[in-house]
Batch of 3 targets.
Target 1
Amino acid sequence: MTALDDLAASYSGEFARLDPCQAAMMGIAGEEAALTDYGPGGWAARAGLARRTLAALAGVPVDGERDRIAARVLRERLEVELALDGAGIPDADVNVVDGPLQRLRQAVELLDQGERTRWPDVTARLRGIPAALAGHRESLAAARREGRVAARRQIAGTAGQCAETARYFGELAGRCPDGAPRREAERAARDAGAALTAFAAFLTGELLPYAPERDAVGRDRYALEVRRHLGAELDLAETYAWGWEELARIEREMAQLAGEILPGEPLPAVFAALDADPAHQVRGAEAFRRHLQELADRAVDELDGTHFDIPPALRRIECRIPPTGAGGIYYLAPTEDLSRPGQVWWTVPGPDAVIPTWTVPATMYHEGVPGHHLQLGGTVLNPALTRFQRVASELHVGHAEGWGLYAERLMAELGYFRHPAHRLGALASGQQLRAARVVLDIGLHLELEIPRGTGFHEGERWTRELGREFLGSRVPEGGAYLDFEIDRYLGLPGQALAYKVGERVWLEGRRAQRRAKGAAFDPKAFHRDALALGPMGLDLLAAELARL
């Protein structure tokens, strides 16, 4: 243990105390009954912690390569947090994917662990919902008085999520064991539901009239958000052009595969045929969960000892179907104490839905092994990292999602997509979607012109409607999915770049290693050593991969 270890551990513990909702996502144990204070005092306390820690870091001795990297990782995050605070972004945040409302819901949802559910913690968090929403409301009202208000679309969408969240809280409390514990949980859920109804009324009645119609955040805010999510300073013009080039390359490959599956048919017809093919369907949420579990278990069995060495504690991935209709697909790393295993959460349309599976293998490799479960789970178990590094993967989106997409491509290279439909699924749900996100995210927020030669509204400037049309012509899903995706990009500027831009850094790092070592290059050793670096921003990752 060094002085840097002490500082990182102290910061992580105090961070968890001040932000239990984020800590729950990060896997930091010890704050399971608490919720984050989203009031003005809570935001000020978290900024104060970052400021004090950054000042202390300047005086901590750095001993060796390990401390050098750890200090840079911690400094990067602290500086980003303070830059966001200085720009007046966090306390005014309302978005449909990852704002305070969604984090409060997730903080309760993460405790919903079936037979492992600790009901006193559930009830405590439900009791805390009214105060947490009151604090959030106070911050939003103060920001509004200063002219800082989120876009109308994000506010209206968030208000619409309140009723579903209240229904889930009531359903969860109804599963509490009989007797006094259930009565307490149901009372807390009713109070939480009333608070959610009042909060929705505040959003629509008191905040929405002041909200701007414009969804784009502009170049300055966007550059700061790219720093937050990617840990990188990007040439946005080059990245936008590269996104178009990648999209064209991937679509040529998709057209070739579609011709193998249904010769002469356009891609939408091939997607529809695969969706309707009983060979690529599972009926019912529980059957689908078992399907996911089988894919996850098989990947662990086949990759362990061959392409990767998987620690015993990571040989099990728990596949879960979330109880609410919102949430998408995501991975949660094991908690520090391993009381929560690594989990893949996969939202489905309903308990009896017929679910197409031809795109599923690629996504499971992304979320499970060799993707996030190997990467983030291995980080939690790595004793060579500081405590902050072990729990910080959730904060380094470019590192995490870049590896996840790289893992999909790696499995293609290893021959795991034997069926043409699964190869097409990997391109459609992975590569094509993520390349389209690069184009859309930059284009929408910078309101760029659509280039000549693309065949899509050439010369026009991006709008939400054009973004939805563009995405709708390129993904198998439709309707609500398209609305969710576009509003996600608009509400979380920069985050959608993390996948392809992050993958680009991982691929370039591997190519550089292969060139430098020639015949001595060992992919297994490269992956082991690269993941052992721990989570970090992409600019730092590129530099450290070059030093391996």
Note: Strands lie at 281-283, 318-320, 329-332, 343-346, 354-356.
Target 2
Amino acid sequence: MQVQFSGPVSVFHDRRLPETATPAGYAALIDAYRLSVPIPRVLSATGTKHRIIEQGGWRIYTPRHAPDARLEGHLTFALKNEGLDLAILKRLFLTVKDDEIAELVNQKPTGLYTRRIWFLYEWLLGRELNLPAADKVSYVDAVDTELQYASSGQNSARHRVRNNLPGTPDFCPLVFKTPLLAEFVAKDLKERARVVVSQVPKDLLARTAAFLLLKDSNSSYVIEGERPPQDRIQRWGKVIGEAGRAPLDEAEFLRLQRIVIGDERFVKLGFRNEGGFVGEHDRETQRPIPDHVSARHEDIALLVRGLIAFDQAAENELDPVIAAAVLAFGFVYVHPFEDGNGRIHRYLMHHVLARRGFNPAGIHFPVSAAILDKIGEYKGVLESYSSRLLPCIEWEPSPKGNVKVLNDTADFYRFFDATPHAEFLYECVQRTIEQDLPRETRFLRSFDTFRAGVENMVDMPERTLNHLLAFLQQNEGRLSKRARDNEFAQLTPDEVTKIEGLYQVAFSREPGTES
């Protein structure tokens, strides 16, 4: 296939370059082969200056980095400098002829990059090229572990390539090794959590765990804009508390949706059998205005199978928080259900962390509460991929105001860059360990001290005591005149003064009085 690679440009796919430069690697392949794929977060080009520039989503390399203006040159450049983008590689391999890839391998049968290209071609397309097995040379990793996170891998003797891809051809997002993620991994938050928990008495820890579960369950509903009754919040909290005990399979996904929805009169349970999107409708025409288009319903079975296989394969491989981000955000992009996707998406974070033993026994970090506090950043992370995915999806409105996807999009849900998602989830997990867990434990200690002091003075039901505490919290440790004249009119002035003093003593160790 004869293609023409671009010369120097100042704009590429509406993205302005920091200086005029020649697209290289994935950018050059997208342009030359007219690939309709989500544009990578960072693109490469070669410029005229003898320094590497990183700016505005571009990495401009020096002239000496310029690859040969051929398929092999740009593929090799991409693998060497940009890591794996499986969606681009899959679409490229579907576009070029088998003979072109076979010829690359025949020219350099022992080459590190040609063997990786050969392996990836057969792995992504599920068919073998007409090539003999590679000579007995040293194995090379499919994923460059200097650039991206990977599994330990299994050797493919045919290619002399170690298949260290962390998923399967049905689902395999990848995460780049960024300085921020390296910093998070080095902190060993699993051990930090263990130390925090070890310092809490068992009875207090049980109460802390129960509160955090309810907090997480409630926050997950609030994120979806729902205010369900307390029994639904408690029921979902109980499910979160059991996260990680059962392996994922289709039946487990369906069970989770039934629990999340509760009332199924207006929601069709089970995997979607029509299109799906996240967004709004035009008020006049009711035409969909999507922010995100979900996977085609025809692809859901294979994608869910891929999610399940990833969960099983990642059990003892990827960093637990990174694996949780990949699985959870992959699920929410697929959006396999009509409703309940968001809460199950956040449940999957708990599932992976618990199944991998990241949580101390009996504790589930209130990740949803952290997400709720970072809701703008959370939406930005979701949009970091959805905004690049949307231009690649051809769709038309259905008669019911839904979307009908017209092109093949499954690969865009199987393969995406989950780096921002992993960084975000790590931020949330760190917050829950270093702030939420200690803060709630401190609060319960202070509350027990306050309650004991009040009970030594006056008999008061638990509900009334909680009401009293709420008033004190709202008024900086003082009981307002309205509360003294109404709800707590039976307290004497001396008792009020003593109670306010008890509050100040009990909560003086607290940087704040909120739980």
Note: The chain is about 50% helix and 10% strand.
Target 3
Amino acid sequence: MSRRFTAGAVATATALALLGAIPAGPAVAAPDTSAESTSYTVIAEETTSTAAAIEAIEAAGGTVVDATAGVGMFQVVSDQADFAAKVAAAPALLGAAEKRAIGYAPRQRFDAVEQEHLIAGGKSAGKHGKPDGHGTRMDPLDEKLWGLPMLRADKSRRVEPGDRRVTVGVLDTGIDGQHPDLKANFSYSLSRNFAPDIVDIDGPCEVESCLDPVDRDDSGHGTHVAGTIGAAANGFGLSGVAPGVTLVALKGGQDSGYFFLDSVVNALVYAGDAGIDVVNMSFYIDPWLYNCLNNVADSAEEQASQRATIVAVNRALHYAHKRGVTLIGSLGNNHEDLGAPRPDSSSPNYGGTPRLRPIDNATCWDLPVEGAHVIGVSALGPSKAKADYSNYGLEQISVSAPGGWFRDGYGTPTHRTYDNTILSSYPLHVLQEEGAVDDEGDIVPGAESYVFKECTSAGVCGYYTYLQGTSMASPHVSGVASLIVSKYGNWDWRRGGLTLDPTKVEKHLYRTAAETACPDPRLVSYANEGRSPEWDAYCDGGQSFNGFYGYGVVDAYAAVTTPLRHH
């Protein structure tokens, strides 16, 4: 996807006594589509009614085009240059997050970490070893999925393969619902697209409405995530951690990889309303790597925008959690301790010029990674070592899981090989755009080591490729969480499926994770892997909880064989 997928960890106590529902209000106006207008996401104060918020927005020179009343969020267009400043000054409003066109940007679906194996010119060392045969219905490519036996997910499926009544939302760039390994588990009726194409950053729209069908993924990232969670165990291709659950596309990311506030908040609110059981999040909300309350490097309007983002995201996370959604996210690929973050030089990455910003851990948050109720996941390589790129830290981490590490296995034949990363499903048309597959659907010479093609007896073919990142770690955890709901959930006629209190899911996930101690020595240098001292990482904490592994490596088999505690 874009340049930098990240996300999820512990709940943040902040200036968020600001949480509260805002009642529904009047109908909103038709959008102003003039070229001079700029789009904004405006957040109201907690006690502001919808009618009062719209009145204040109009007084500032804006036109409301849509509203998510439950969290006090409004989509607005305005041709007033000082609109954001007026919103920041309005007592009824918190701030306005701007969507400013910056000219067409070529698609950069993934950051350098996620496709490092391609950029560096990796090779294949062969499989890491087949699962030990205790699982059932293992698929042909599962022998390349070293993450399944690490989680004992190859064994857990004989106890609990996942219940179709359990739904996992993939809040990402979409899911290729036509992929033959995903189609049987994909829900058209529940899936939604919250992120229409934006021509300036995504290129020309593929459909007239610019709202892609819910079974479309023009990035590939969401399809890869979905396969790890719930690719079917059908004797074809590969299988996911929970091959029996239902996959739901919550398209909140642009094709180009940007994730904007309104799309993410709307997806989370919908997940709560629709009864989704688990939501996987592997991104940060653009344009700020860290949203801060009052960063000295930012203008007053930018500070107000970030304060509004902090409030809106936490409102949405609380909303979803209260309605039974277990929230899981990746910790990010910036190789830093999130409790002691480095200065940020990448923001804003849209609508402005990036600049060096000091990051104060007490007043800045990486969202949704540090948002309320989010289970944060670090990434491991096949050796169970923390991947060099993975963020970590006692304050944010919850658990760890396989995310891939291209440089793992230093001094062995597996070092710098594709096999160290994560294989999963991928859209054919994206591989064709990337030049790995030709117009006839054949893998091009040179790509056979990192792209795989599997065809059914009916001649329907699915495609698979390798990626690495904390984005690949969090779906392993989302899969395990969905198994917990499948095994221990209760039928809820209102939701039309199984449900389990997300707090119980979280506690059971932690209790059944495999405790893993810090390495010795605790200060890990990645010099042998070619990294500078900036990448050195110190593991703080004990075996039961530490900054690299959290409560431990998630364990699917233990999760479905250990009785659930009901208190």
Note: The CA atoms of residues 513 and 554 lie 4 Å apart.
